[in-house]
From TrEMBL:
Predominant place of localization: membrane
Stored InterPro entries: CPA3_antiporter_subunitC, NUOK/Mnh_C1-like
NCBIfam families named in the record: PRK09094.1
Pfam families xrefs: Oxidored_q2 (PF00420)
Keyword match Cell inner membrane: no
Organism of provenance: Neoaquamicrobium microcysteis
Entry's family note: Belongs to the CPA3 antiporters (TC 2.A.63) subunit C family.
Gene Ontology cellular component terms for the protein in this record: plasma membrane
UniProt name for this protein: Na+/H+ antiporter subunit C
UniProt keywords, alphabetically: Cell membrane, Membrane, Transmembrane, Transmembrane helix
C-alpha cells in the first residue's frame, strides 16, 4: 500500500511540475492543483499507519495501545487544505478569465509566440 501511495504522489508531483512549466495559464493552474493534491496525500500519509479494513474505534475491554491509532492532526490539516485549495483554484480561474479578457491571450507572459 505504501508503494502505491508513494508512486501516486510521485506521478502527481511530476505531472504538476511539468504543467507548471507550460506556457498557458490554464495549464499552470492545473499544475498548481496537482501539486496541492500531492502535498495533501503526502501529509495524509504521515498520519502513521495505512491499514485496510481496520475498525476506526476499538471495542471496550481490550487494553489500549496508542500505537494502533492513527494521528488525527494530518487528517484535519488535509481537510482544511482541500477547502483552501478549492477556493484558491476558483480565485485563480477568475483571475485567468479577467487577464484573458484584458490581454486577449492566455499565455503566461501575455504574448503569443511568433511563428
Amino acid at each position: 500500500m505504501e508503494l502505491v501511495l508513494s508512486l501516486a504522489i510521485g506521478v502527481l508531483v511530476s505531472s504538476g511540475v511539468w504543467l507548471l512549466l507550460r506556457p498557458r495559464t490554464y495549464q499552470v493552474i492545473i499544475g498548481l492543483a496537482l501539486l496541492g493534491y500531492a502535498v495533501n496525500l503526502f501529509i495524509f500519509s504521515m498520519g502513521r499507519h495505512l491499514i485496510i479494513n481496520a475498525p476506526p474505534v476499538l471495542e471496550g475491554g481490550d487494553p489500549i495501545d496508542p500505537m494502533t491509532f492513527t494521528d488525527p492532526l494530518p487528517q484535519a490539516l488535509v481537510l482544511t487544505a482541500i477547502v483552501i485549495g478549492f477556493a484558491t483554484t476558483a480565485l485563480f480561474l477568475v483571475v485567468l478569465l479577467a487577464a484573458r479578457g484584458l490581454s486577449g491571450t492566455d499565455h503566461v507572459d501575455g504574448r503569443e509566440p511568433e511563428r
